[in-house]
Amino acid sequence: MIRSLLIKDYALIENIEIQFEKGLNIITGETGAGKSILIDAMSLLLGERASSEVVRKGSEKSIVEGIFDVKGNKKVRELLSANELENSEELIVRREISLKGTNRCFLNDTPVTLNLIKEVGNMLVDLHGQHEHQSLLRAETHIEMLDDFANLGDELERFRTAYNKLNAYLREHKELKEKENLLLEKKELYEFQIKEIDAVGPQQDEEEKLEEELKILENSEKLLSIVSYIYENLYDAENSIQGRLADVKNKLNELSRIDKTFLEKLGECESAFALLNEVSLSIRSYKDKIDLEPKRLDEVRERLGALSMLKKKYGGSLKTIIEHRNKIGKDYDLVENFAEKVSELEKKINEVRKECGSTAKKLSQKRKLFSAIVKKEIEEALKYLGITHPVFEVNLENDKADGASENYILVDDKKYKFNERGFDKIEFFVSTNIGEDPKPLIKVASGGEVSRIMLALKSILAKSDRLPILIFDEIDTGVSGRIAQKVGQALKSLASFHQIIAITHLPQIAGLAEHHFSIVKKKIAERVVSSIKKLNELERVNEVAKLISGEKITEASLNGARELMGLS
Fold it and tell me: Do 507 and 519 form a contact (C-beta atoms < 8 A)?
């Protein structure tokens, strides 16, 4: 739902803020007071384009800001996450229109594109009247409405699983075919490179180990000289460190027999003796392993030279060379077995085409069944709303695929175009006058009729509809009396499932408001200013009475207002 709407310096509006509520919000006001300006401003939050002409005289820019509760709106939350925008239970949408013609858009105070604002608006609001932002007039939404009414979520999920699999296979097939000529051209090159790399057979991290070994081998004589010196001094010489330490240990042992305070020093000396012995053994072991053979040195140098040659030719590291070998190996295997791979993939594609076709056919059958139900119920709802001879049709078509196209599914072994909802194309047609053939809704001329058609449709689809906010402008065009009362009751009923904002001139509709706002136009300091006010119960009675009798309120109009409001 929309919690609040702020409009600053927009046309006749200087600064107003409206706090909307759940349920049925009604807006009334005299002709020219600014009701249409309010709707125009609100349409900016839904992605409509704006002109600098809307900026109020004497101001630099117009600002329109709406705060929406999106706590339960999964699609909006996912869209915000996908665009790396702040994601909370509250969404702030703001538009700024500069006198210079610049147009700035914000979601949660982050600058965004107008297209993103429009995308968010399409997930939040349906605005019905003389405006473009009406989902009913977008034929692509009709199939969604029908599917929601028929509760086809599970069937659609099954189809989309197969649809995604088919598209993945088709992409893979296209990539294979595009690769074929390129791979054939490079087959000999790949074969040569594979043999050259495999002849050396580089291993991950091999170079570092070889360089360590080379360093040792190149310094083997020096290493042998140094460790021999160390070992001789520690252990092997006549006057070795280990021998002298053994003498010291024996003397400490004698002392400790006389004075026990030397026991601690004896223990420390024994530890030092054991450690020295361990070092001597380690040095001897290292000395015995030193290889003075020049053959291994030559082998290591030759191996490093071969690896260096590969690095210069194929990349800066062994890792790069190994990755290149793996890639060209796969491509080489592919070109060697290309016909077999393509044949295997085409078999999978054909199987999934049939799977898609079978699921799409079941979807289509259910849509035809529910189309008849929707037709009957909407025609009855339209009659209730004062359109006496309505004809409503759910036009369902399937397009056969072009013979040359790869994008098709198989329905009873016939090729059809498809999308993520199956192979049906659905559009709502309507006739509101006797003797007229049904036409696409986009061609219905009367804004009031479009609003009543939408009201009828929403009344049928209310529980399953995806858009939480419905705005009706001019819904009372061409209706009065008993029909106006029915339109109001339909809006009231619909407000159980949606937040409704409706502009009306009719007391029968205004009397049913759960929240009533009045727009007035005043002259302040030689300037005309529009303002809006939420009415209390007494003010509501007076406003509805005005709609009944005009500016002069009579006792009869007050009684009529109370009766319409259910207060008498």
Answer: no
Measured CA to CA, the distance from residue 49 to residue 121 in angstroms comes to: 13
Residue 196 lies in a domain: no
**Phi then psi for 293, rounded to 5 degrees?**
-70, 125
**What values do phi and psi take at 446, rounded to 5?**
-80, 125
Token pair 């037709």 is found at 375
Tokens encoding 265: 């020093």
Q: Which domain holds residue 233?
A: 206-320
Residue 248 maps to a domain: yes
User: For the chain, how far is it from start to end, CA to CA, in angstroms?
Assistant: 32
CB–CB of 25/514 below 8 Å? Answer: yes
**Tokens of residue 558, six digits:** 């007050």
- Partners of 27 in beta bridges: 503, 517
Q: What is the pLDDT of residue 62?
A: 92
Contact between 545 and 557 under an 8 Å Cβ cutoff? The reply is yes
Which residue's structure tokens are 């520690």? 234
Please state, in angstroms and rounded to a whole number, the distance separating the CA atoms of residues 407 and 405: 5
Give the tens place of pLDDT for each residue, 140-180.
888 988 998 888 989 999 999 999 999 999 998 888 877 77
pLDDT exceeds cutoff 80 at 218: no
In a domain, residue 493? The reply is: yes
Give residues with Cβ within 8 angstroms of 442, minimum separation 6.
137, 139
Secondary structure of residue 514 in the 3-state scheme:
coil
Q: What is the CATH number of the domain that holds 467?
A: 3.40.50.300
Residues 462 and 402 in one domain: no
Nearest to 476 by CA among 462, 459, 491, 461: 491
Both tokens of 190, joined, read 């790949």
Residue 543: per-residue pLDDT: 92
Residue 524 β-bridge partners: 527
Total domain count for the chain?
4
Q: Is the pLDDT assigned to residue 505 strictly greater than 80?
A: yes
Residues 299 and 291: their CA atoms lie apart, in Å, by: 13
SS3 512: coil
- Say which residue the tokens 């009957």 belong to: 376
Lowest-pLDDT range of 5-9, 95-99, 164-168, 564-568: 564-568
Place of tokens 């249409």: 36
Q: What DSSP character marks residue 400? A: B
Query: Residue 280 corresponds to which amino acid?
Result: S
pLDDT at 24: 94
Structure tokens at 563: 């009766």
Instruction: Report the interhelical angle of 74-82 vs 114-124 (nearest 10°).
Output: 160
Report the candidate in 398, 387, 392, 397 with the shortest Cα–Cα distance to residue 374: 392
HSE (CB half, 13 Å, CA atoms) of 58?
7
483-495: buried (b, 16+ CB within 10 Å) or exposed (e) per residue? bbbbbbebbbbbb
Side by side, the strands of the sheet bearing 425-431 are: 391-397, 425-431, 439-440
Contact 502, 521 (CB under 8 A): no
- Residue 311 burial (CB count, 10 A): 16
Q: Which residue would you say has higher pLDDT here, 354 or 307? A: 354
Residue 393 neighbours by CB under 8 Å, 6+ apart: 375, 428, 429, 430, 438
